[in-house]
Amino acid sequence: MSTTVADSRPDAANYDQQKFAIGLSLAVGFLMLMGKTYAYILTGSVAILSDATESVVHMFAVSFAAFSVRLSFKPADHTHPYGHEKVAFFSAGMEGMMIVTAAVYIIYTSIAKWIVGLHLENLEFGTLITAAAAVVNGILGGYLVWKGRRTKSLILIANGRHVLTDSWTSFAVIAGLLMVMWTGWLPFDPIIAILAAINILWSGGKLIRQSVGGLMDEADPAFERQLRKALDSETQRRGLWHHELRYRHTGTSMWVEFHLLFPKGCTIEEAHWKATEIEAALKESMPVSLNIITHLEPREEHDETHKHLKAATE
Fold first, then answer.
1. Which of 80, 68, 66, 64 lies closest to 9, judged by CA?
2. Are 131 and 205 contained in the same domain?
3. C-alpha distance from residue 276 to each of 1, 9, 97, 300 (Å)
4. Rounded to an integer, what distance in angstroms lies between the CA atom of residue 19 and that of residue 120?
């Protein structure tokens, strides 16, 4: 029996693209924070404050994401033999926790201001600033998610979804400010802020859930169906069999391992080349980057051999 391991080095070809996207997110986030802070100072709107608070979180989160992108492309070494790609899940979890913290702060501030008394002014100008920020963040968030999917970067996708959430929060704030201006009823402002915070909580919770699932190597049924279909096709074409299929997501790629069963009389050279062909075909057919480990075994007397090995270790 033998084991072949496909090249496990991270694909650094996408590094510059991811670095540019994160840098753009950081620069735009800073401008949005300045604009929303100015709008809050002008209006005193707690809804705009909630929007600005999420931008503060975005600045911290995107800074950590920039560090994560750089670390995820660091090659494997003796301290991390599987590489550093799983930092992507830490990045997503950190961003989720920051979003949840911001949402709790927004709810607290909204209720406190409502109790003390509401005072709003310059709503028209504040609404225009918030609307501009919403449009810019919507474009940026869509770009980050698109780029993240193209480069297979969980870090960019998580950051893009956060920016899109920020955009939807801004639109909700705009709706609340318009209702205040149309009706003159000031409590619309904290009510919209609280509703926006609840939406933020949901978004942050999903990021944390995704982070935990990745760190715990949670199964991906859609990926497994596609992988198993491709593997069945490639092995059947070559008159082979497979079993013990397993996989795990690293944040930027998938580690896949399985056993290949060969008929009696197959030489080790022939088995090796067939395994290499199957690995190449899987990499070509799957939409994500794969690191593949194949374990080569004879089909004849396979079960009996494993029974003896298991008995010997017990």
1. 80
2. yes
3. 15, 17, 42, 22
4. 41
One-letter amino acid of 48: I
| Cβ proximity of 8 and 274 under 8 Å | no
Same domain, residue pair 53 and 167: yes
Domain coverage including residue 266: 220-313
Continuous segment of H or E residues that includes residue 159:
helix 154-183
Structure tokens at 204: 């942050």
DSSP 8-class letter at 254: E
Instruction: Report the DSSP pairing between strands 290-298 and 254-262.
Output: parallel
| pTM of the model as a whole | 0.71
pLDDT at 7: 44
Distance separating alpha carbons of residues 177 and 160, to the nearest angstrom: 26
In the structure, what pLDDT confidence band is assigned to residue 308 with cuts at 50, 70 and 90?
low
Round to whole Å and give the CA distance between 158 and 145.
Answer: 8
* Paired residues of 266 in beta bridges: none
Q: Which residues pair with 78 in a beta bridge?
A: none
The CA-based diameter of the chain, rounded to the nearest angstrom, is 86
Residue 294 forms beta bridges with which residues?
A: 4, 258
CATH number at residue 292: 3.30.70.1350
Pairing of strands 254-262, 241-249: antiparallel
